[in-house]
Amino acid sequence: MDFQVVVLAGGFSKKLVPLVSKEVPKALLPVANRPVLSYVLDLLEQSNLKDLIVVVEGSDAAFRVGGWISAAYLDRLHVDVAPVPEDIGTAGALRAISHHLTARDILVVSGDLVSDVPPGAVAAAHRRHDAVVTATLCSNPVSGPADSGSSGAKDKTKKPGRNIIGLDPSRQFLLHIAAGAELEKDLRVQKSILRAVGEMELRADLMDAHLYAIKRSVLLEVLDQKETFQSIKKDVLPYLVRSQLKSEVLSNGAPQVEENGNDKVNSQSKRITQSQILANASNRSFHELYAFGPDGSASARRTHKCCVYIANNNKYCARLNSIQAFSDINRDVTGEANHLSGYSFSAHNNLIHPSAELGSKTTVGPHCLLGEGSQMGDKCSVKRSVIGRHCRIGSSVKIVNSVVMDHVTIGDGCSVQGSVVCSNVQLQERVTLKDCQVGASYVVTAGSEYRGESLAKKEK
Amino acid sequence: MQFDDKSRVEKAKKRAVVNQTEVRNRVELFRHLPQYEHGTQLPDLESKFFRNDPMHRAVYKVGLQYLAGDITGGNARCIAMLQAFSEAIRDYTTPAEKTLTRDLTAKIGSYVSFLIECRPLSISMGNAIRFLKNRIAKLPLTLSESEAKTSLCLDIDRFINEKIILADRVIVRHASTKIRDGDVLLTYGSSCVVEMLLSHALELGKKFHVVIVDSRPKLEGQSLLRRLVANGLNCTYTHLNAVSYIMHEVTRVFLGASSILSNGTVYSRVGTAAVAMVANAFSVPVLICCEAYKFHERVQLDSICFNELGDPQAVAKVSGRGDVNYLGSLGNKDNLQLLNLMYDATPSEYISMIVTDYGMIPPTSVPVIVREYCRDQLWI
């Protein structure tokens, strides 16, 4: 259907240190024992989008991601992994691969999105209105209890990214978008847009899902003209939304000048009649009304449309952009949104791999995940947690509300609460962790107690 | 297709692209017409966007616009559909070992079934499709693929130009001779030809007054009213319930039509028949402005055997007034059925004259035009 899909898988994110490392780029962070990129790829595969371009920052990370994708999706998807330089921003990444883009519209998906919003619906809304960009919005996911998350003092990105979104009365067009740092200052609304529409609805409860459908010609033109644009969300999208009634990007609606003579007048007027029949018969959006001017004269002002698709309330949508979000998504995917994980849950509402061994008197509560080859000692208790593959967990261990990745060794008597423990970590006896993050291959000495800290191996 | 035949409905559902859920409470008399739940069609079609067999994007866009109600009106729908087909033909390539004519006809057929699922075709669209299929079948075999495609696109452009645009101009020129100074003209709903006629008559400098009669639930007359008032016409706006009170002031009635059938019956927006009958009772002449490509050889005696059912909930709601919800919980009762008909048939005895691009004819001359000029759907 003339759409090309680009997945922006990021690279090494500073916000997610110490979870990410050189061996585990952000795209391969496990959520419910599956790399987070697999959720996006599965969503696209279900919608029959089989040709993808995955953009990864940093050649090392690109190599790892490419290796994993070709192993996991050998015959199911055709993926081109394109490495781009680091810290280049989402717009910069698109600029770098612009020569690969050939289709009429581009679907840009963020690689850290965990969602079941159908990309087809976004594409259909985009085509129906012949829009220049269509954004996907959904209601904010409920985030975990704020005080048990990463400690407030250290983590400034605690609040989910707040957006202020301006919509038209029919909730199809995007009139205003402001996010993040701009919210601290005053909110500036374009008067021309407000006058043309008449009524604007401002919403603060919607989250940008980072799934955009953009017209290719416009995207390339904007990226070419505005060299400084680094991020789609912060630069490109607000620019397009602001300039929708004073469009400089397209030769949109400007009447073509014919060659000469009588033909010119006749075919002009025929085309005008034809477009008038179509225009009078259809529901005109405020763009057309604005372009045609108050006296109905031919369009002197060029406009383009920015549409929006608001996902249904029953769709799940979350982005992995902070440690708090990581814990939340893990909890959701094993809990309410467990249809996303692709596993089938047992009668106790948890998933224990058949090869996992449980000691005597060990309880595994609902909404838990136990990976293959893991061994648990006696008298353990696991509640609302995800445990990876090949873990060795001793006796009398309590794991509550946490994520434990693969190949972890936990000694006896430990207590892990609200924490994230990465791969290859060794927790010796009687360690207590509360709201901590332990980086890969770290060894926590016996008997230590940590509260709200981030432990990682020193890089050599 | 008759929708009260269960086995055929099942077969059609299996082939269907758009997933339609049928309304539970259906009016028995109209069981042979399709009636679907209006809220679910658009989201379902959207979610299957990438999954369908490669439907050309222009056709898909037009289908979505029909489904969402973005385009209404016989001429506009026909033009939009033909432009989408033109784009699809331009992007078409013949697969190996297949002939252009057969494969392209099959493809157009699949597009047409998709459009039918989005919204049942109007008669003007049906005629245009038959014309296009006829042109494809008549393509000489010696033409190369690109020549054939350009020839088809030219044919489509010519059809739109001659049968719609130029036809409208001719109709407007003829009909404006029937408007005299001091006339009070009445029109119903929103017809693009009638609107062009009124604007043209105003440009010619005639002095007249327009009465626009409108009806729920679509309230199409309001957009017509806005445009005419913006042009500087003196207008009166009223609803269908008041038509007999205003008719004694009216000197002529101009109506548009979706189609004119062979027995002179005018098939048009629901409410047109009422307006025509009231005008007849007051001895006011009724003139129908209709392009010739909308004529059809079918004969219809009532509005029941062939019609279109709209969204029944639209009858119960008032747009812009969410508090007016008198039916409320009654909507789901078994012994209450909501009916929203879109078209009706006006018998020919209430029509004084039909203005077409072939001239001004009485309703009894419609089968003559169909017979003489519609040979093989070529509309020469």
TrEMBL record, chain A:
One of its GO terms (molecular function) is translation initiation factor activity. Residues 352-444 form the EIF2B subunit epsilon/gamma LbH domain. One of its GO terms (biological process) is cytoplasmic translational initiation. It is found in: Cytoplasm, Cytosol. Residues 142-162 are annotated as: Disordered. Transmembrane segments: none annotated. One of its GO terms (cellular component) is eukaryotic translation initiation factor 2B complex. Residues 5-145 form the Nucleotidyl transferase domain. Keywords: Cytoplasm, Initiation factor, Protein biosynthesis. It comes from the Eukaryota. CDD domains: eIF-2B_gamma_N (cd04198), LbH_eIF2B_gamma_C (cd04652). Pfam families: LbH_EIF2B, NTP_transferase. Component of the translation initiation factor 2B (eIF2B) complex which is a heterodecamer of two sets of five different subunits: alpha, beta, gamma, delta and epsilon. Subunits alpha, beta and delta comprise a regulatory subcomplex and subunits epsilon and gamma comprise a catalytic subcomplex. Within the complex, the hexameric regulatory complex resides at the center, with the two heterodimeric catalytic subcomplexes bound on opposite sides. Belongs to the eIF-2B gamma/epsilon subunits family. PANTHER family: TRANSLATION INITIATION FACTOR EIF-2B SUBUNIT GAMMA (PTHR45989:SF1). Acts as a component of the translation initiation factor 2B (eIF2B) complex, which catalyzes the exchange of GDP for GTP on the eukaryotic initiation factor 2 (eIF2) complex gamma subunit. Its guanine nucleotide exchange factor activity is repressed when bound to eIF2 complex phosphorylated on the alpha subunit, thereby limiting the amount of methionyl-initiator methionine tRNA available to the ribosome and consequently global translation is repressed. This is Translation initiation factor eIF2B subunit gamma. It comes from Punica granatum. The lineage of its organism: Eukaryota, Viridiplantae, Streptophyta, Embryophyta, Tracheophyta.
UniProtKB/TrEMBL annotation, chain B:
InterPro entries: IF-2B-related, IF_2B-like_C, NagB/RpiA_transferase-like. It comes from the Eukaryota. Belongs to the eIF-2B alpha/beta/delta subunits family. This is Translation initiation factor eIF2B subunit delta. It holds the Pfam family IF-2B.
